[in-house]
Amino acid sequence: MSLLNETLAAISPADAEAAAQARDRQARMTKPAGSLGVLEDLSVRLAGLAGVCPPPLPEPAAVAVFAGDHGVHAQGVTPWPQEVTGQMVANFLAGGAVVNAFATQVGASVTVVDVGVGTLPPAGDGLLDRNIRRGTRDMTVEPAMTRDEAVAAIEVGIAVARDLVAAGNRALLTGDMGIANTTASAALVAAFTGADAGAVTGAGTGVDAETLRHKTDIVRRALARHGLVGDAPAAGSATGTAPGAADPIETLAAVGGLEHAAIAGFVLGAAAERVPVILDGVIAGSSALVAAALAPACLDAAVAGHRSTEPGHGVALAHLGLTPLVDLSLRLGEGTGAVLALPLVQASVRALRDVATFDSAGVTEKQ
Ligand SMILES: O=C(O)c1ccc[n+]([C@@H]2O[C@H](COP(=O)([O-])O)[C@@H](O)[C@H]2O)c1
Ligand SMILES: Cc1cc2nc[nH]c2cc1C
């Protein structure tokens, strides 16, 4: 069996009994019921994922930054030159990027994976060279990847997740680097949710109003080129029918990026290992749509670290039914939003594990 099929077969839903035990313990802990809000629900989900209450503390934690380039860059969708992708890879390896600073703050490791970078300057030690091809093709002209390339990149993500868990990590965090990848993200979100290109295309690294109109048009053209235009959304709904969900890998190959494919695989790999995976911004959100279309139960392992300012990210999270933990108007990528959310995920488990119950502490319950 292929690594992808083996991984899909290993993914099963959360353990309802462990989740019920966590819910019951939350009600008996020395605090008013419900007073930890979203963190209570999170601890219940993590108990269900682990199949035991309390679940293991999500540490040590590892960020994997998947890097790739994009043929659609040729269409003028971003102000940044393509070679910045490879230059930032070198910066991650030298420890000089924001994700490195944030990861040091929370005690997470950073693994950098070249899954599709076009050109790399001489880079420091430690790069995982898993390059499938030197950037995708232009999605407005032809499919960005072949089906085989998309599957190979998914399997890179699965293998990285598996190896990080084998090395002892108990929380995985997604990171990405790829100039022009917010265009591919917007196309994936539209294809998998049925939302209009205008509702999911954003400024990315920062484009002016005219470039944003052009970028939106590029997304619309790519969707039309690949038969991925959904029906108009019903009144009151942001999304309509989602033509991309019928064949998720074909859709990913048509308009996605190599780092999107790898991140989808990383989410699947984490779910198969029953280890939580904290999602970063719109690149991770759009990749999680691919993973969820392949194996809906993988979402039991997924935690939305934050909500980025890209409009497509909110649409993706709503479709996935995930509540972001942090909302700080970030739009950097690299894994930065996921890393900032890590202490919250850890705190939710620590509370469930360590807080006394009314009974054990001799605290009187409410009347
Ligand atoms: O994480 C996000 O939501 C996010 C939002 C805007 C930009 N980015 C990052 O910026 C790069 C892509 O932006 P762009 O404008 O070139 O498409 C890529 O390296 C992403 O990591 C990331
Ligand atoms: C400098 C820079 C850093 C980044 N980190 C993630 N995406 C990025 C895009 C740019 C342009």
From TrEMBL:
<comment type="function">
    <text>Catalyzes the synthesis of alpha-ribazole-5'-phosphate from nicotinate mononucleotide (NAMN) and 5,6-dimethylbenzimidazole (DMB).</text>
</comment>
<dbReference type="Pfam" id="PF02277">
    <property type="entry name" value="DBI_PRT"/>
</dbReference>
<dbReference type="GO" id="GO:0009236">
    <property type="term" value="P:cobalamin biosynthetic process"/>
</dbReference>
<dbReference type="GO" id="GO:0008939">
    <property type="term" value="F:nicotinate-nucleotide-dimethylbenzimidazole phosphoribosyltransferase activity"/>
</dbReference>
<comment type="similarity">
    <text>Belongs to the CobT family.</text>
</comment>
<dbReference type="InterPro" id="IPR023195">
    <property type="entry name" value="Nict_dMeBzImd_PRibTrfase_N"/>
</dbReference>
<dbReference type="InterPro" id="IPR003200">
    <property type="entry name" value="Nict_dMeBzImd_PRibTrfase"/>
</dbReference>
<keyword id="KW-0328">Glycosyltransferase</keyword>
<feature type="active site" description="Proton acceptor">
    <location>
        <position position="334"/>
    </location>
</feature>
<comment type="pathway">
    <text>Nucleoside biosynthesis; alpha-ribazole biosynthesis; alpha-ribazole from 5,6-dimethylbenzimidazole: step 1/2.</text>
</comment>
<dbReference type="InterPro" id="IPR017846">
    <property type="entry name" value="Nict_dMeBzImd_PRibTrfase_bact"/>
</dbReference>
<keyword id="KW-0169">Cobalamin biosynthesis</keyword>
<keyword id="KW-0808">Transferase</keyword>
<protein>
    <recommendedName>
        <fullName>Nicotinate-nucleotide--dimethylbenzimidazole phosphoribosyltransferase</fullName>
        <ecNumber>2.4.2.21</ecNumber>
    </recommendedName>
</protein>
<dbReference type="InterPro" id="IPR036087">
    <property type="entry name" value="Nict_dMeBzImd_PRibTrfase_sf"/>
</dbReference>
